[in-house]
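Morning, I've got a small favour to ask if you have a moment. Here's the protein in full, and shout if anything looks odd to you:
***
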Amino acid sequence: MSDHGSAASSGKRALRSDAQRNRDRLVESAAALFSAEGVDTSLEAIARRAGVGIGTLYRHFPTREALIEVVYRREVEALRDAADELTRMQEPDEALAQWMQRFVDYIAAKRGMGESLKILFESKSPLFAETSGIIPTTLKTLVSRAVEAGKIRADADSVDVLHALSSIYAAAAGPDWRERSRRLVRLLMDGLRYGAER
């Protein structure tokens, strides 16, 4: 009998499935709490929100940085996937506008992981090399489509847009940070639409 068959008959396959669900819940909970509460989020709070014990968290993620690495990768890939979904469902300028609002949520989570991301960077983690081109490439595609459709100004440059978006990372923290950031993104989008062919 194959290993696969042995695993299925012994029930180990179901256990792996449960473990995967626990892992997924931990990653989702961590992303939500890092975004909402920032750097002070405790691993105990993440485990509690995921409905598992702290021992389960440590079995999947032996260090805070191990969890951060998976959450960060998930956030970047979610932005890429959102662009594909929005492009299918929205006009090019609206797809860009909604994607930029989702970028605010990505930045919120990134701010919450800041210190651990710095540790990962200093440890030469391959995470950044593997994910560095995803967001610029995704944004370039969205901007190009909106320009080609005449929905935003012809001289719009995705590099400039990304610089403007990334500036919200350094904005002063506060209870209204997210709303201020969303307002700035709306203003940026208004500027991109100004003078477009329509």
About this structure: Residues 1-62 form a domain with the Tetracycline Repressor; domain 2 fold (CATH 1.10.357.10).
